[in-house]
Amino acid sequence: MFDFATAFAEAFALVFAGDAALVQIVGLSLWVSGCAVLISCLLGLPLGAALAMTRFAGRRALVVAMSALMGLPPVVVGLTLYLMLSQSGPFAVFELLYTPTAMIIAQVVLVTPIVTTLTRQVIEDLDRDLSETLRALRASWFDRVGTLLWEARLALVTAALAGMGRALAEVGAVMIVGGNINHATRVMTTSIALETSRGELALALALGLVLLALSLGINAAVLGLRDRAEHQVAHG
Amino acid sequence: MADPQIIPFPQQPLRAPSVAPLLAFDGVSIRRGGGLVLSDVSFGLSPHGISCLLGPNGAGKSLCLRLAAQLILPEEGRITCDLPPSQIAYVPQNPVLLRRSVSGNLVHALKLSGVRWRDRRDRLQTLLTQARLTFAADQPAQSLSSGEAQRLTLVRALASQPQLLLLDEPCASLDPASTAALEELVCTIARSGTKIVLVTHDVGQAKRLADDVVFLASGKVRETGPADRFFEAPGSNAARAYLEGRLLT
Q: What is the pTM of this model?
């Protein structure tokens, strides 16, 4: 029978010893998810703000579609990207399949709708309060977007954090387009899946602990940052 | 019991000379929900001094101000103003301060007004001094008292150095001391040559500040004219009733 205590002890030993394989996997995970969230923010923040502040035919459908895409199944994204990047796909020439770049693309597809939708909601609410004041100050459309994005910065950090959470925890899409290749495209989630299936529970548990610690750490840091910023805004 | 402290009237601004109107409404009407909320509104305002749009709640005063600010367009009639939009500043009834410092709010307004960065520091100091908020320059704007916040929103509107300043009930929620400070600021701005149009339902405030009055009730202009004449001998029953404190329905 599987010994929980031994597995946990080995997992902690790996974490505290700074095991090279573990560090490499964690590093690649952070790199892939960090890049994906950064790109998603660059796309999603202006897109969400534009959706919040522009009225055009089909806007409602786009808003609904973007909300629906938040629940996009990662394996479907992975499969679609696989077909597009594989040798018979339209983007085969770029030779991206089984590379970290393909994994970043997959995570961008998954995270961008989250950032866009949350940004749209935040900016729409804020625009309701600030619209008349900014129009009275003769702010141009671009000035208004810039001002609202800056005013909503605390809430937008939370949107980015939600995206980071989704990216770090994602397994299906990166497994398909990354291939889970050792020292190349192996990230925390795919490693946990692999090591568990192989019975190497110590490494799987160690990675699980790191993933959990990262998740808690990022959330705590952002909450602390928000509390501090809100306190400064309110009390100086 | 001690006598209450009486806050002196601010120094009277310049009297309005009789010249061509700076802002004119000509047969302006607006519909909302199937009914007329402004009906055939016509008046003209001189280029100097302080004009008050006076009347009970729901008279259409704020709507007139938003029309004058070119934030909405009239459905019928015409509004003429000799100034470009950049020379018209508007302070809404519930202005919102940005989540920045007092200086940050003013710098943002200066930036929107196209003031070059090297001129911003001097302009910022001028505005802070005008608002008597130099001491709070680095404080978050959200931490200001109601009176201070209202003075900040007022000088923020001056960032573009407007010729016409439209104020929608700027003293609505202020105590007497804060109201006095704000009225003094309004008079100072008017004396510097900026035309001020002030919406109020406070007869006392209109008496203290107005050079001329446009009296509205139920979406119609009931009377216009110099403030002295309006308050001494109102020509319409509606204005007489309002000044006597009777309820207008």
A: 0.78
> Are β-strands B88-91 and B76-81 bridged in parallel, bridged antiparallel, or unpaired?
unpaired
DSSP, collapsed to helix, strand or coil, labels residue B91 as: strand
Contact B72, B231 (CB under 8 A): no
> With an 8 Å Cβ cutoff, is B92 touching chain A?
yes
Q: Is B95 on the interface with A (CB under 8 A)?
A: yes
B96/A130 touch (CB, cutoff 8 Å), yes or no: yes
**Is B151:B129 a contact under the CB 8 Å cutoff?**
no
Order the strands of the B220-226 sheet from edge to edge.
Answer: B88-91, B164-168, B195-200, B50-54, B212-217, B220-226
- What domains does chain A contain, in order, with CATH numbers? 21-227 (1.10.3720.10)
Q: Tokens 């704020």 identify what position?
A: B62
> Is the pLDDT score of B17 beyond 80?
no
Read off the pLDDT of each residue in B163-183 and give the average, rounded to a whole number.
92
Chain B positions in Cβ-Cβ contact with residue A143 (cut-off 8 Å): 112
Instruction: Give the SS3 label for residue B197.
Output: strand
Please state, in angstroms and rounded to a whole number, the distance separating the CA atoms of residues B18 and A142. 42
Interface check for A130 against chain B (CB to CB < 8 A): the answer is: yes
pLDDT of residue A2: 57
Verify whether the Cβ–Cβ distance A136 to B112 is below 8 Å. no
The predicted pLDDT at position B14 comes to 41
Tokens 């943002």 found at: B108
A136:B99 CB<8 A: no
Domains (range + CATH), chain B: 23-100+162-243 (3.40.50.300)
ipTM: 0.79
